[in-house]
């Protein structure tokens, strides 16, 4: 990304163009910072929660298109960010609000995008672009705005086609913390929870702390010895960006923890890494799941949950019945299924204390249907601790 920060009001309508790798061009006007940004163009279907979306570290490497037509009407504030900055490579909207109409607003979305150097484009037919992505699959693209919009079309397309694809990229190192930190438990303390930060959201940390864990957030480069040094009662893998097939060191760390009997919970990217630790494969979805309105079936209860998703990869596992872990961790079952396309949305090990889901139970930008999963994790850890105490 090579943004500039020359301020221009929305009404100035500086030129901008979105170029996709299939050669299509979509002209609009500049929004946020001016310059050039390149990434995988993906769409998210949430009607609200744009601030939570933009500050989700899982969007590193991606240009986010909002399918909802009117964005920015409630501005931005200091309470709702999921992390320390906006992580999306770029932003595509149809009709940005020219003012913030909320008593909670501390500023406008346009100002926030410019502050963090995020090149965006507005005034496009986002429905048409979404239909193209749904038909052809997620593809690389670039936003050229301001002076960059006047570059020759062939040069712009060459820049897009010469950029890195998402498959094979390990991006967690770009978003993880550099040094460990601790968030104290709220209420009755259970023990230390080791959390591998692959792109964690603050709402996740808060939910874990409210379940009685002293949350030790560790850099993604941490070793299993670093995990053990926290004296953990359990291990948690967060969401994050990138291809799970490019994260072998994280898979190896998790396998060591599972062999030691450490209770485990993973979400989103953590679900994909759990699948690989069990010996399963992962694959890239045509256009992914992104939004706060994805229906998922919890097979243990028969309940359909409306859940928050942000993933472009998924685990390949048998949908029906139980199966043996190819890596030797006993019996496993698919615990949750996406009802739109039957994608695996959760895994549960039956012979070790470990499970995962592909979506976001903290659901800060949407409903709370899946928040019970933090309670399920707490109960799993307490059950494990009680059994260890009985055998002590």
Show the helix and strand layout.
Layout: E1 2-4, E2 15-20, E3 25-32, E4 34-44, H1 50-54, E5 62-66, E6 70-71, E7 90-92, E8 95-96, H2 109-115, E9 119-122, H3 126-136, E10 139-145, H4 153-161, H5 172-175, E11 181-183, E12 191-196, H6 202-210, E13 213-218, H7 224-229, E14 232-237, H8 248-259, E15 264-267, H9 269-277, E16 281-298, E17 303-316, E18 322-324, E19 331-338, E20 344-349, E21 354-357, H10 372-391
Helix pairs in contact: 8-9
Report on this model:
Mean pLDDT is 92; it is low at 4-8. Helix 8 (248-259) crosses helix 9. It is globular, with a radius of gyration of 21 Å. It folds into two domains: 2-161, Glucose Oxidase, domain 1 (3-Layer(bba) Sandwich); 172-391, Rossmann fold. It has helices at 50-54, 109-115, 126-136, 153-161, 172-175, 202-210, 224-229, 248-259, 269-277, 372-391; strands at residues 2-4, 15-20, 25-32, 34-44, 62-66, 70-71, 90-92, 95-96, 119-122, 139-145, 181-183, 191-196, 213-218, 232-237, 264-267, 281-298, 303-316, 322-324, 331-338, 344-349, 354-357. With 392 residues, the protein is of the alpha/beta class. The strands form three sheets. Strands 11, 12, 13, 14, 15, 16, 17, 18, 19, 20 and 21 form an eleven-stranded mixed beta sheet that branches. A seven-stranded mixed barrel has the order 2-3-9-7-5-4-10. Strand 12 (191-196), helix 6 (202-210) and strand 13 (213-218) form a beta-alpha-beta unit. Helix content is 23%, strand content 33%. The chain is built from ten helices and 21 strands. The active site is at 268 (nucleophile), 360, 362. Pathway: Amino-acid biosynthesis; L-arginine biosynthesis; carbamoyl phosphate from bicarbonate: step 1/1; Pyrimidine metabolism; UMP biosynthesis via de novo pathway; (S)-dihydroorotate from bicarbonate: step 1/3.
């Amino acid at each position: 990304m090579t943004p500039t920060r020359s301020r221009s009001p929305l009404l100035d309508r500086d030129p901008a163009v979105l170029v996709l790798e299939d050669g299509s061009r979509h002209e609009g006007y500049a929004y946020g910072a001016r310059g050039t940004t390149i990434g995988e163009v993906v769409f998210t279907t949430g009607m609200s929660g744009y601030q939570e979306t933009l500050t989700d570290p899982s969007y590193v490497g991606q240009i986010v298109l909002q399918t909802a037509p009117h964005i920015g009407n409630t501005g931005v504030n200091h309470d709702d960010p999921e992390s320390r900055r906006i992580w999306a490579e770029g932003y595509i909207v149809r009709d940005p609000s020219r003012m913030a109409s909320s008593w909670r607003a501390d500023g406008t979305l346009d100002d926030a995008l410019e502050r963090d150097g995020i090149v965006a484009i507005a005034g496009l037919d986002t429905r048409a672009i979404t239909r193209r992505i749904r038909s052809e699959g997620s593809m690389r693209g670039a936003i050229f705005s301001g002076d960059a919009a006047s570059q020759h079309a062939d040069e712009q397309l060459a820049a897009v086609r010469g950029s890195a694809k998402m498959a094979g990229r390990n991006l967690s190192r770009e978003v993880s913390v550099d040094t460990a930190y601790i968030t104290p438990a709220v209420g009755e303390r259970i023990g230390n929870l080791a959390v591998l930060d692959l792109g964690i959201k603050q709402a996740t940390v808060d939910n874990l702390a409210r379940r009685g864990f002293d949350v030790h957030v560790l850099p993604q480069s941490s070793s299993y010895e670093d995990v053990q040094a926290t004296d953990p009662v359990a291990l948690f893998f967060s969401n994050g960006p990138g291809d799970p097939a490019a994260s072998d060191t994280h898979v190896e760390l998790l396998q060591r923890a599972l062999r030691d009997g450490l209770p485990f919970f993973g979400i989103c990217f953590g679900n994909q890494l759990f699948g690989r630790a069990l010996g399963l494969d992962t694959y890239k979805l045509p256009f992914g799941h992104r939004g706060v309105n994805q229906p998922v079936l919890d097979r243990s209860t028969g309940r359909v949950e409306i859940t928050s998703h942000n993933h472009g990869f998924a685990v390949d596992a048998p949908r029906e019945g139980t199966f043996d872990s190819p890596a030797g961790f006993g019996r496993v079952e698919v615990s949750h299924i996406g009802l739109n396309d039957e994608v695996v949305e959760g895994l549960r090990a039956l012979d070790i204390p470990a499970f995962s889901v592909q979506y976001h139970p903290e659901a800060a930008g949407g409903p709370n249907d899946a928040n019970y999963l933090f309670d399920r994790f707490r109960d799993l850890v307490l059950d494990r601790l009680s059994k260890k105490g009985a055998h002590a």
